[in-house]
């Protein structure tokens, strides 16, 4: 490999990582190159890299099989959250703060935890941070980390096909929440089973969460956020339950789902116009930094899930703070030169430099 094809990331606060910028050559070779660069920057895994060769099988879409238990529970949850909205103005100040902090921490359990650490391995975390993230993740109740990461790797590898659990080609509602209300498409199970999840199976903390998930969720997502305001500062039981518990939980859920729906349907594609995911600032605001979704699907191994670092990206700020404390390390960041080369090669022309 000639020296000019190697680009170094060297920044005062990011681990130096070497990647290869894709040069201009035939499509087939390019595909190989992009796989190699992924391996170079993060050799430990590659099952979240988009598989261009996978296509949906011909034939009609199987009939939707509703899961009525989920439909009823999700309906009740959203009704409870709506009632919570009515109660917000009459909440005690501390309850409001408590709900916001709980939103932020459980959000991090998804973004910094299930997503950037466990699904993509974009950085490494020491035990105290992993403990914090697994607790935060349990507060968010979006399936255990193992299942979340399996679905998410399938979402990246088989994007916009029937093997993608929340295939955005099936519309806004399906990719937002509908996918949780029907039986999985057979391709999700079939292709999901081919993914390498050995890193997750080998991580005791992830398997521990999976074993005790149901009771842990009951405690961390519902009982604790309700009891604390009620006992500690004399909030009414109704305000504690409907605002701090149900409304806060529903808002984190919907913010996460918007990454799968809105950020796959609305926005520019400056990094790769051939994929559906898009840059969506509004989604980034709600999902603490996960709306730079065209970038993220183009470079899933970048710990910032964005070309930038702290720009509308609380999750990156959090990971960087953890790095200062020595709890996060080996953060993978794609070099500016490789990003610019990719924009030139596959972008939609909407990129504004500087
Ligand atoms: Zn991802
Ligand atoms: Zn996506």
Briefly summarize what is shown:
Helix content is 55%, strand content 5%. It has a domain of 198 residues. By secondary structure, it is mainly alpha-helical.
How is this fold's topology laid out?
Blueprint: E1 6-11, E2 14-20, H1 27-41, H2 68-87, H3 93-119, E3 124-125, H4 127-140, H5 145-157, H6 172-176, H7 186-192, H8 198-201, H9 204-211, H10 213-232, H11 237-260, H12 262-265, H13 281-286, H14 293-298, H15 314-324, E4 328-329, H16 336-346
Antiparallel strand pairs: 1-2, 3-4
Helix content: 55-70%
What is the approximate shape?
globular
Largest sheet: 2 strands, antiparallel
Total of DSSP H or I helical runs spanning 4+ residues: 16
One letter per element, helices H and strands E, the order comes to EEHHHEHHHHHHHHHHHHEH
Spatial extent as radius of gyration: 21 Å
Give me the count of strands.
4
Poorly predicted residue ranges: 1-39
Question: What does the average pLDDT come to?
Answer: 88
Small molecules bound: zinc ion
Query: Helix/strand-derived class?
Result: mainly alpha
Beta-strand content bin = under 5%
State the separation between the terminal residues, measured CA to CA.
30 Å
Family: Belongs to the fatty acid desaturase type 1 family.
Enzyme class: oxidoreductase
InterPro entries: Acyl-CoA_DS, FADS-1_CS
Main location: endoplasmic reticulum
What do these coordinates show?
The chain has 354 residues and is mainly alpha-helical. It has a domain at 68-265. The chain is 55% helix and 5% strand. The chain has 16 helices and four strands. The chain has helices at 27-41, 68-87, 93-119, 127-140, 145-157, 172-176, 186-192, 198-201, 204-211, 213-232, 237-260, 262-265, 281-286, 293-298, 314-324, 336-346; strands at 6-11, 14-20, 124-125, 328-329. Strands 1-2 form a two-stranded antiparallel sheet. Helix 3 (93-119) packs across helix 4, helix 3 (93-119) runs parallel beside helix 11 and helix 10 crosses helix 11. The longest helix is centred in the N-terminal third of the chain and has 27 residues, at 93-119. It is globular and about 60 Å long. The structure holds zinc ion (2 copies). One zinc ion binds next to helix 14.
């Amino acid at each position: 490999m000639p020296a000019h094809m190697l680009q170094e990331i060297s920044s005062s606060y990011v681990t130096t990582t070497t990647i290869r910028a894709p040069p201009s050559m035939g499509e087939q070779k390019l595909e190989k190159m992009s796989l190699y660069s992924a391996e170079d920057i993060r050799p430990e895994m590659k099952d979240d890299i988009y598989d261009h060769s996978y296509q949906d099988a011909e034939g009609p879409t199987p009939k939707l099989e509703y899961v009525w238990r989920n439909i009823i529970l999700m309906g009740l949850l959203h009704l409870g959250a709506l009632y919570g909205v009515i109660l917000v103005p009459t909440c005690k100040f501390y309850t409001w703060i408590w709900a916001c902090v709980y939103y932020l921490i459980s959000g991090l359990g998804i973004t910094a935890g299930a997503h950037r650490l466990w699904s993509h391995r974009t950085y490494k975390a020491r035990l105290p941070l992993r403990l914090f993230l697994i607790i935060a993740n349990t507060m968010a109740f979006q399936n255990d980390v193992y299942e979340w990461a399996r679905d998410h790797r399938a979402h990246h590898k088989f994007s916009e096909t029937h093997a993608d659990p929340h295939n955005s080609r099936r519309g806004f509602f399906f990719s937002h929440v509908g996918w949780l209300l029907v039986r999985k498409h057979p391709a999700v199970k079939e292709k999901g089973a081919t993914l390498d999840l050995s890193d997750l199976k080998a991580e005791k903390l992830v398997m521990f969460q999976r074993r005790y998930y149901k009771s842990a969720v009951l405690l961390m997502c519902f009982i604790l956020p309700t009891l604390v305001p009620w006992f500690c500062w004399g909030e009414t039981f109704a305000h504690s339950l409907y605002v701090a518990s149900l409304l806060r939980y529903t808002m984190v859920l919907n913010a996460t789902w918007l990454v799968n729906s809105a950020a796959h349907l609305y926005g520019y594609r400056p990094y790769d116009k051939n994929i559906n995911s898009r840059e969506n600032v509004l989604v980034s605001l709600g999902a603490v930094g996960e709306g730079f979704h065209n970038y993220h699907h183009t470079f899933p191994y970048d710990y910032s899930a964005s070309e930038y670092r702290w720009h509308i990206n609380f999750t990156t700020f959090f990971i960087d703070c953890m790095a200062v404390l020595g709890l996060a390390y080996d953060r993978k960041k794609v070099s500016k030169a490789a990003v610019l080369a990719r924009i030139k090669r596959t972008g939609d022309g909407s990129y504004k430099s500087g």
